Amino acid sequence: MISVVLADDQALVRAGFRVLLETEEGFRVCGEAADGAEAVALARRHRPDIVVMDVRMPGTDGIEATRMITGDPELSGVKVLVLTTFDVDEYVYEALRAGAGGFLLKDTDPVELLRALRVVAAGEALLAPTVTRRLIAEFVDRPENRRVHAGAVREITEREREVLALVAGGLSNEEIAGQLVISTATARTHVSRIMTKVGARDRAQLVVLAYESRLVRPRDP
């Protein structure tokens, strides 16, 4: 059973998601929030598997709420899936930096939303490579967004650099294993070690790191 908190300032949007999830086997809605502060409070109270988070809300917005959730060691098991109206959106970029496990457009097909929730609940990053490249290409080279991660990247081995580049390309552990001719367990271990070394919470943060450190560039194939 995947437990979900819905955070959106529009009651109609929350109601629509609730109806969708409550009619689908395997999901349970354990709370609704109209702003980020309420979303954080519900996350602390219920410890859901996922918070579906609108990024633009009054008061505490979705970015700050995401930071508060991902920065709380007691909420390490709570994933955040960001919802947005625009796929190239600086709010989404900042949410990924803050630790969101992925993002979806609000007009996503219901079947895709359910799939996304299952993917994020399983610990995978929900980042379509083409959309991610477009999103990061839009913001990574702006002076105010440049962040040097050279020190963090220097801590990883050459093999781990290869793995990180493949994670940034949207490959799963199984696909990375096939590409590098290693076992899936070994690929998973590499990814876990990279996360520990660079201080990333999940694969989505690894993708942002790979681009911002210039290990991968937005226009790379």
Description:
This protein is an alpha/beta fold and 221 residues long. 51% of the residues lie in helices and 13% in strands. A five-stranded parallel sheet has the order 2-1-3-4-5, with helices on both faces. Helix 1 (11-22) links the parallel strand 1 (2-7) and strand 2 (27-33). It is globular, with a radius of gyration of 17 Å. One of its GO terms (molecular function) is DNA binding. It holds the Pfam family GerE. It comes from Amycolatopsis cihanbeyliensis.
CATH class of the largest domain: Alpha Beta
Q: Helix and strand string, N-terminal first?
A: EHEHEHEHEHHHHHHH
Spans with pLDDT under 50 lasting ≥5 residues?
A: none
> What's the β-strand tally?
5
Our count of domains comes out at: 2
Give the overall average pLDDT: 85
How would you sum up the global shape? globular
The main sheet comes to: 5 strands, parallel
InterPro entries: CheY-like_superfamily, NreC/VraR/RcsB-like_REC, Sig_transdc_resp-reg_receiver, Tscrpt_reg_LuxR_C, WalR-like
Modified residues (4-aspartylphosphate): 54
Domain HTH luxR-type: 149-214
Keywords: DNA-binding, Phosphoprotein, Transcription, Transcription regulation
Question: Care to give the gist of this entry?
Answer:
Helix content is 51%, strand content 13%. By secondary structure, it is α/β, with parallel strands linked by helices.
Q: How do the helices and strands line up, and which of them pair or pack?
A:
Layout lengths: L1 E6 L3 H12 L4 E7 L2 H11 L3 E5 L7 H9 L8 E6 L5 H9 L3 E4 L4 H12 L7 H11 L10 H5 L3 H11 L4 H8 L3 H15 L4 H10 L9
Parallel strand pairs: 1-2, 1-3, 3-4, 4-5
Helix pairs in contact: 2-3, 3-4, 8-10, 8-11, 9-10
